[in-house]
Amino acid sequence: MEGLFTMSFLLLVVLIWALPIVLISKSNRTFGGEKVAWVLAVIFVSWLAWIFYLLLAPLKSNPNQR
Predict the structure, then answer these.
(1) How far apart are CA 66 and CA 64, in angstroms?
(2) Would you list the domain boundaries of the chain?
């Protein structure tokens, strides 16, 4: 029973950690290399980078978007 609780807890932690990565990946605010840079920032800096993403993205305007 302890093993099941531990595995459930670890799964919950991984899902919470991966949430910003999924949200950035599905977002239409950024594209291409900028999106990859934000995802990498979230992987290495975690939730703080996601907060910056919400406040600052996109860093430059998309020339194809009107």
Answers:
(1) 7
(2) 2-56
